[in-house]
Amino acid sequence: MRSNLQSPGKLSATKNKKNHLAAALPSLITLLLLLLVWQILVSVSHTSARIISSPWGIWQAMVVNRSSLLTAAYTTSCEAFIGFILAIGAGILLGVGLYVSHTFYASFYPLLVGAQTLPIITIAPLFVIWFGYGSLGKIVLVAVFSLFPIAIQTCRGLIAVPRYFRDVALTCGATSPWELWHVHIRVAARQIFSGIRISATYIFATAATAEYIGARNGIGVWMQAAYNSFQTPMVFAATVVIIILTGLVMALVSLAERLMLGPAEEDSID
């Protein structure tokens, strides 16, 4: 006879999947209701599409202009992804440097915290002047603006690691560099991923803003052309694409964290 019993691992995975679906359902329902209300209000009030577009109008703009929109999204995605990857590597190394050297920490940590308040609208024109209208300037700008949260969260995560982890490793014969990379980094990994997740939320917005100020292609250029021709549905369409791309990157970061570190504690609670 075939057994209908499932292994504990499968039961746990099924339960976690149901929990995630149950947690996402209220947000999905709320989003659908908001879109429905938005559609009804625009239709009933007969508001001009140049002032505000309905969800259906935005969808139509995305379908009609899908070819040019996808091309622009591809350019922006390449700039954002490359800059993001560079920021992850540089941010973690910078955070480790802040943790290892007290002099480096005292000199640069306050500057890093303050640098997060710099408005991109004042910095992006300088990158256009320095790097021109190509993709290089956008990649560098995304990398620079994205590494701050990663470096700060890496440093904070390493500082928060209990001292006894280091003491045990050194007592067992480990060297300080080995202990740093194999113990401290692993224990602080959740907080490092927290910094990566923060950075992921605005890499596409950063790239698109830089393109809006000066570029040859990309979502920012596409949005500027739509704005100049008073095509409000196209402006909304570009915004929707940025939101979708950001959601995909956030999902990839969460997947990487889960694969490398396992489920978070809140996911393991029955």
TrEMBL record:
Arranged from A to Z, the UniProt key words for this protein are: Cell membrane, Membrane, Transmembrane, Transmembrane helix, Transport
Quick one: where is this thing mainly located? membrane
| One GO-annotated biological process of the protein | transmembrane transport
One Pfam family name is BPD_transp_1
- Membrane topology classification: Multi-pass membrane protein
Which segments cross the bilayer? 21-41, 80-101, 108-133, 139-159, 196-215, 235-256
GO CC annotation, single? plasma membrane
Listed InterPro entries: MetI-like, MetI-like_sf
Keyword Transport in record: yes
User: Does the keyword section mention Transmembrane?
Assistant: yes
Its subcellular locations are:
Cell membrane
Residue stretches making up the ABC transmembrane type-1 domain: 69-253
- Any coiled-coil regions, as ranges: none
Q: Which family does it belong to?
A: Belongs to the binding-protein-dependent transport system permease family.
What name has this protein been given in UniProt? Answer: ABC transmembrane type-1 domain-containing protein
Annotated source species: Scardovia inopinata F0304
